[in-house]
């Protein structure tokens, strides 16, 4: 009897999976821990746009005192940065927060998180989604994953 019922139960699940729009998601999150506890650490990640345009409105975490989104830019030959509060993530696009460009600033990263080597970040999207992503914490003096990714890019040329 059971053999008859299994396909009937599975069919609607498969249909709904096919019909779901692709969501925006975030990966490759990492935090470069500041060597000086009084200075903020920086965070990086890649946002992948889903089927619909959205925007990143902010980032929260229980494992730091404060998080801000920043953008670095060169102004009169000097690198400066300013806080940003809305980062568009167009459909099917890739938006990278990377060293030298957009980044997170994190003040007072929690010692427990540092000991664990990772911290959960909550990304707030304009469409109301909250994405929980684990960021790897990179201690000072260790090359971050972004460096490794750049080395890979060069080897392809
Ligand atoms: Cu900054």
Automatic annotation (TrEMBL):
InterPro entries referenced in this protein's UniProt entry, alphabetically: LpqE-like, Lxx211020-like, PCuAC_sf
Pfam family for this entry, one: PCuAC
Highest taxon of source: Bacteria
Protein name as annotated: Copper chaperone PCu(A)C
Taxonomic source organism: Sphingobium chlorophenolicum L-1
Lineage, top ranks: Bacteria, Pseudomonadati, Pseudomonadota, Alphaproteobacteria, Sphingomonadales
